[in-house]
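tool=predict chain=A
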Amino acid sequence: MVILFAAGGFYAINRRGQVLLATVNEQTIVNFVSGQLNNLELAVNLAKRGNLPGAEQLVVERFHELFAQTKYKEAAELAAESPQGILRTPDIVAKFQSVPVQAGQTPPLLQYFGTLLTRGKLNAFESLELSRLVVNQNKKNLLENWLAEDKLECSEDLGDLVKTVDNDLALKIYIKARATPKVVVAFAERREFDKILIYSKQCILLGLYYQTLCWVHT
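tool=predict ok
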């Protein structure tokens, strides 16, 4: 038998010369492994690595087990890799926030955010909460680094927070978040009225571009 791998599955040629295509049903494989094969660990690992549905309840239960055992690092890693981002929610952030900080130890909340940052980009809520910690600790340089590395999702709320410590950095966030009214106000406060005109033209052109794309795809 000859096997050729393809995107989403593989082709096989049997001894009769028949060409067969085998693919994985992403919607059911996790439930099959956990239910029919009774292999919960494999099911969770498949769901995490492939970002597949079907193990949501298993992942949530495992997270609460780790948290109850004060294994915050392992819980943070599970949350970071959770399929469909089911553990990337405000409730999970609040759970880490609620843990008392022990003297001489890294706060669980920082362990959580640190783990997420090693995995990729934070969502809007995570970005806001981590930035709030950094602003309160007067560590603006960390924000600059994360923004340069595209680790934070920019939003108007994030810009409002950062503006309390750095107007220039806040303007960059507003622009990236496409918070047009706040961008215009920021330029006006800096008396850079010429940039308001340039920015407005860019917004109009961008709007026309997206309208064209929508028209093409309809």
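Confidence is low (pLDDT under 50) at residues 1-6, 208-218. The longest helix spans residues 193-216.
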